[in-house]
Amino acid sequence: DTGVSQNPRHKITKRGQNVTFRCDPISEHNRLYWYRQTLGQGPEFLTYFQNEAQLEKSRLLSDRFSAERPKGSFSTLEIQRTEQGDSAMYLCASSFLAGDTDEQYFGPGTRLTVT
Amino acid sequence: AQSVTQLDSHVSVSEGTPVLLRCNYSSSYSPSLFWYVQHPNKGLQLLLKYTSAATLVKGINGFEAEFKKSETSFHLTKPSAHMSDAAEYFCVVSPSGTYKYIFGTGTRLKVLA
Known about the structure:
The complex is a heterodimer of chains A (about 120) and B (about 110). Chain A is mainly β and about 120 residues long.
């Protein structure tokens, strides 16, 4: 399967613990995005990478959140000192800009439950 | 500011009848518009996209959407619903020249046998 993959698919953690999620984009895609989706809502943009450079972070991303994309390949999203409000589905997407359209391909997501 | 409104949070149709999922957008310039579908435990899948070419866009699985600038709408339609169409559908606007995706809140489609 050459789509976007995310690991783990599910994560249950206790409040105050740190968690890290991984995203492997489609190999030729230079753009990578993280989104958060809560129940009954559409995905909300968190952050964007072009190659290894993090070019934008949403105000939703508090200082407990950090994302990296070393060498412009896979990406990790870390949440420190998790809170119950962090419980959500975390989605990764990747794209390769062609013309004026950026078509994003999404992974299956990592569902985080903070108890 | 750019935004997208999906007018119905839930839509129920009988199998074999037409589907209409409504979407209105707000954008300063000509945006790109997308419809994505999300099946349970599956990733978001692109159904179709509008990028300032033909206003009637055909997508996968028999879906199509019409871009109406005067009405700022991008409604999704399908002539005949199938049981496998039951899923959550998201309308997305991406302002011209940006990578940003702005999602609607979604419409859950239920297909009755």
